[in-house]
Sequence to fold (189 residues):
Amino acid sequence: MDEGFAMTMKTIKAEDLYRRIKLGHNVVLLDVRSQSEYDEGHIAGAKLYPLESFRATDIISQVCAPYPMPPTIYISCAFGSEAGKACQLLADAGYEYIMKLEGGMYAWITAGLPLKKEKDNPPVLESLPIHQQMQIAVGSVVAIGALLGTFVNTGFLAFPLLAGAGLMYEGFCGTEYLKETFLKLSRDK
Fold:
């Protein structure tokens, strides 16, 4: 294994990872989110290694110890971007067998796959999938902005315009800024 090689990001779809787990494949799964996000719901068997304290060489020695051959390490996070950073850290440490969960836990939840939860009775809004929360939030901004722009002041029409432009930007560029911002705002309450 060469240290610091540029890696080609390998990804796996949520359904394919779930199938591998169900078939009994040796799945080494790391979750790089925060403790609170992990407690709210994670893939059964995932080990928590938050990105802010991620030490690739230590993790490699810990998770590979039980295996005679280096296993593939699957990395999950909220939406996929933090998992990419963790994959790169493992690659920089010389590890080659790495796959990122495409779309992160958002994709896992959206696919309706099972979660293991550490806390009981989440508030109603948190029990909705994140895509539904996003639809409610953006729909509210558009509807309220349109009503205020029609009946109060046309300046309020900027809100639906900005919401629409933001969604178009995300769609064309494939970014997750709006989702990540909304997720952070909902967790800070």
